[in-house]
Amino acid sequence: MLKTIAAILWKDLKIELRTKESISAAFVFSVLVLVIFNFALDLDTAQARRLGSGFFWVAFAFGGTLALNRSFAIEKESGCTRALMLAPVDRSGIYAGKFLANVIFLVLTQVLILPLFAVFFDVPVGNRLGTLLLVFVLGAVGFSSVGTLFSAIAANTRMRELMLPVLLLPVTIPVLIAAVETTSYALGATEDASFWFKLLVVYDVVFVTVGHMVFEYVLEE
Amino acid sequence: MRSGSTVADAATAPALSCEHVTKRFGRLTALRSVDLTVRPGECTVLFGRNGAGKSTLLHIVAALIRSYEGRVAVFGEDLRAGGERSRRALGLVSHDSYLYNDLTALDNLRFYARLYGARDAEARARALLARFDLEAKARSTVRELSRGMKQRLSLARAVLHEPRLLLLDEPFTGLDEPACATLAGMLGEFVAHGGAALLTTHDVERGLEVAQRVAVLERGAIAFEAPAAGLDAAAFRHRYRELLEG
Amino acid sequence: MATSGTKTGSAILAVIALATMLAGLAMIGFYAPVEAEQGVVQKIFYFHVPLAWNAFLGFTLVFVFSFIFLVTRSRKWDIRAYAAAEVGVLFTTLVLVTGPIWAKPIWGIWWTWDARLTLTLVLWLIYVAYLMLRHYVDSPDKRATLSAVVGIVGFIDVPLVYFAIRWWRTQHPQPVIAGGEGSGLDPRMAATLWVCLTAFTAFYLYLYRRRVVLEETRDEVDDLHRRFDERGHKTQGAA
Questions:
Q1: Cα-Cα-Cα-Cα dihedral sign, residues A133, A134, A139, A141
Q2: What DSSP character marks residue A44?
Q3: A212 and C CB contact within 8 Å
Q4: How far does B142 lie from chain C, in Å, by closest CA?
Q5: Among C93, C108, C80, C105, which Cα is nearest to C216's?
Q6: Among the listed residues C56, C32, C61, C60, the one whose alpha carbon sits nearest the alpha carbon of residue C44
Q7: Which of C73, C222, C237 sits opposite B246 (nearest CB)?
Q8: Which of B111, B133, B153, C56 lies 20 to 30 Å (CA to CA) from residue C105?
């Protein structure tokens, strides 16, 4: 099982290393969303600081969806999904490998957006940087747990670029709310976010487990 | 090894044994109690109209579809009960290349070698590149390969793990003459070395060229089955054409 | 085929639904007292709450039928999950419509991201995603399996959404639209509510059954078409 996960993870990382398509798409789109927010809302500095974490995660939600979409689009391209299904491996290993790759891509995207975000919204990000990175990881895990599953589902549909966000965004609302609240805490805007950290962890555990269990039904002809 | 099986049993077990395979969903019946056997050293070609159920049957045999009635056994091992292991003997070839366009030829083979649990993935990958005359292109991405090379690489991928039963899903689709010849040649070699193959196609000429056994699937059931040797090719073509039109 | 058993079942549900609905309307009009603060408008409550109850019941059914489908792979359960979702989304839409109709006269605003209404909106979005998925998958087999997975994942998500929204709202409070009915209901109001609850549940089940029969009939028609086409082929080939 571990070998399967390693093989899949290695492959996805190698493809991304060569093409950089997932991360660049997610990054560029996220930055666009942040910029458009700026024009649409024209906030002063005080407001921007207060609402900043919300903007960050909205931008991430949309950008991240693009990266997740690619996860199974590359498999569908040359029919590789079938080759994966045929291989003598546990199919939840395929889920785990792709899930981990997606978490890595999403966290990298967040880390790339962060400096731009700090500059655009004039927010001090250094105070609880460790906590902020923890939030990034917990959020990415939550997003990726359902996102990997739904990416595989959407890849089977006629309008996959539409279906993935339509499926994913409502279901990841708890992650998004919790991520915004914990980011506000990490940026020093609030003093207690313990409930939200707990919610993130619960969500992550629940959906990584559920994703693991139902994935084999998604990978069928 | 299953207890109670003798060496003789293992030697004579057919490569593929489909027993009363039925695939239904609601009122749609794709396959009706299909019985089919493929023996080692034989290539069975399954003809049939589009929609006759050829793909469905092949997908079931390739373990891509798991809900169906009946039994499919690969070298004596039930496909559903056997789990991952029973899929080890299977190889799949189709008009899809099953290659990752942004990986190099070598990386593609390395990936599949690791996926199939080869102990030395690197060496196995390189050996296959050599065998299919692709060493020069080891570090080229699949996008950069010509069509012919892509096909050779795809075949290399299919036999990388030394499958004993090869499944070919409309493999001649979109191939030109030389490419078909390459495929037919590889298939012939595979079968001559004791491999078994099940090939679906609606191309009568190419199918007859590579067949040791011939079968026709019509509306989900086997309408005809016979060895290829001694088959009156002209009569078969005629009958098959009628079937297609009719 | 709609057996006589099914027809009887539907008929019984129709009668119960009609009877309780009429009784409920009568009670709303003449029996239940007019609420002190909100006046007559408050009576939307007797529609809004039963609709919401059935919206969530519907999604529970989608979950149960999806689960059974993945175990049995029988089209029968796929039909039932789909029917439960279609009727469910209808009821959910009505909740989202009656909420603002209630809010506007009383609070002067249509919507405030009140916890319950927001949860219902999210439920609506998940229902819609489920139905859209079914629309965009071509193979019937895959359609059933993939939507079953979404039905299950969506249902597991709902409690998490509930807790997230509830805590979020306690931290950032806003006016509550669908009033605290937990705050001591007059027994006459409670009685009216129960009757309406029964009425709407019966109505939901009635619509659900009709939808199941419709889908089964559609399957039958498709099957007849296919067999007719095949027979056509057969007679041509025999020549």
A1: positive
A2: -
A3: no
A4: 30
A5: C80
A6: C32
A7: C237
A8: C56
- DSSP string across B157-186: HHHTT--SEEEEESTTTT--HHHHHHHHHH
Tell me the pLDDT tens digit for each residue of A89-135: 999 999 999 999 999 999 999 999 999 999 888 888 888 899 999 99
Instruction: Give yes or no for a contact between B155 and B183, defined as CB atoms under 8 angstroms apart.
Output: yes
pLDDT of residue C183: 55
Q: Please write down the long-range contacts of A32-41, taking CB distance under 8 Å and 24 or more positions apart.
A: A33/A58, A33/A59, A33/A62, A33/A63, A34/A59, A34/A113, A34/A116, A34/A117, A34/A120, A35/A120, A38/A120
Q: Is the pTM of this model over 0.90?
A: yes
Q: What is the ipTM of this complex?
A: 0.94
Mutate to test the interface with A, among C92, C133, C155, C170 (most CBs of A within 10 A): C133
Q: Is B200 helix (H, G, I), strand (E, B) or coil?
A: strand
- Using CB atoms, which residue from B26, B27, B242 is nearest to C237? B242
Looking at residue B2, its pLDDT comes to 45
- Residue A138: HSE in the Cβ half-sphere, 13 Å Cα cutoff: 26
Residue to test with chain B: of C216, C233, C235, C236, most B Cβ within 10 A: C233
CA distance B167 to B90: 7
Residue of B97, B115, B122, B165 best to disrupt the A interface, most CBs of A under 10 A: B115
Does the beta carbon of C149 lie under 8 angstroms from any beta carbon of chain A?
A: yes
Residues of chain B positioned with their CB less than 8 A from the CB of C70: none
Asked if residue B57 lies in contact with residue A51, where contact means CB atoms within 8 angstroms, the answer is: no
Residues B175/B145, Cβ–Cβ less than 8 Å? no
Residues 6+ apart with CB under 8 A from C5: none
Contacts of B63 in chain A (CB under 8 A): 85-86
**Residue B50: CB atoms within 10 Å:** 9
Beta bridge partners of B90: B165
Residue A6 in contact with partner chain B when CB distance is under 8 A: yes
Contact state of B246 with C233 under an 8 Å Cβ cutoff: yes
Chain B residues in contact with A92 (beta carbon < 8 A): none
Question: Measured between CB atoms, does A90 come within 8 Å of chain B?
Answer: yes
Bridging pattern class, strands B213-218 and B90-94:
unpaired
User: What are the structure tokens assigned to C100, written together?
Assistant: 């603002």
What lies within 8 Å, CB to CB, of C41 at 6+ separation is: C102, C105, C106
CB contact under 8 A, B111 and A11: yes
Over the Cα atoms of chain A, what is R_g?
A: 18
Sign of CA dihedral A109, A115, A119, A122: positive
